[in-house]
Amino acid sequence: MFTFSAFYKRHALFVAAWFLFLCNVVSAASPPVTLAPPPESVGRYDIYEITLTDPTKYANPWMNVTISAIFTAPSKKTWTVGGFSYDGAHTWKVRFAPNEVSDTSPWTWSLTYDNGTGQFSANGSFKVTPLNSKGAVNSGFVRIHPTNKLRLITEGDGRCFSVRSLNNDHMGADTLATGASTDANQPTGTTFSQFLKTMEVAGLNTIIVRGSDFGGLDPKNNTFDSAKLQAYDQSYAEMHNTGMKIIPIVFQRSQSFVQRGWDTSGPN
Fold first, then answer.
1. Fewer Cβ within 10 Å of end Cβ, the chain: N or C?
2. Residue 85 pLDDT grade (very low, low, confident, very high; cuts 50, 70, 90)
3. How many CA atoms lie within 13 A of 111 on its CB side?
4. How far apart (Å, rounded) are the C-alpha atoms in residues 214 and 217?
5. E strand or H helix that includes residue 191
6. DSSP state letters, 198-257
7. What is the mean pLDDT of residues 20-34?
8. Are 223 and 184 contacting, i.e. CB atoms less than 8 angstroms apart?
9. pTM higher than 0.90 for the full model?
10. How far apart are alpha carbons 83 and 71 in whole angstroms?
11. Angle between helices 226-241 and 192-201 (to 10 degrees)
12. How far is the C-alpha of 124 from the C-alpha of 111, rounded, in Å?
């Protein structure tokens, strides 16, 4: 039997369900993200970088956006890494150092960019070559020596760290940002690039960096210096490109490898 009450209830439920559906569609709207074309190939242990831009103004770009990327090697091993705000405004980056050469199958990746109200998704692939852009073998990640747990060795070229390869010049964030070296053993006016070249020619492979102000971040006052952050970032990239291993000292004064108890008795 038809009644107005039953008709009203039936249609009221339909309207409510449709309204909830529309709300979900709106809330799940994809953020207006633009993905810059990433590189087609990169050297083993070099940095593969994905750059995203979003014109949305966020109260806290470091916290309001979450990026998760999954990288899959030709061997099918996977690594999950996060992204980060690069300029504190509209640019985010994802960085990954692949450790396998892609002889036959490429590396692949997929990512999600979540701003709390919706998600942007993307995927891609790239090749990994044995040599870097300088035509050299990258030294790779630091590992424990296979027969001596007190020694450190590089995964890519097998070089060991010793006290002779440790530079004790503490390069603060201001030094990195200005591009000048404060090493007392270098001539006055030596640039940071020249300082790294001297170390490279001498066969040294480790540098200590003390970032007294977190490279432009001041967590106590919740402020940041975007220009200094990016200069700091570029200086780290320059150290990486010369094959340097970097020991960041943030919360305490540094100690030598000997004081740390590492075995530094010779090059092998």
1. N
2. very high
3. 27
4. 5
5. none
6. HHHHTT--EEEEE-TTTTTEETTTTEE-HHHHHHHHHHHHHHHHTT-EEEEE-SS----H
7. 64
8. no
9. no
10. 13
11. 20
12. 9
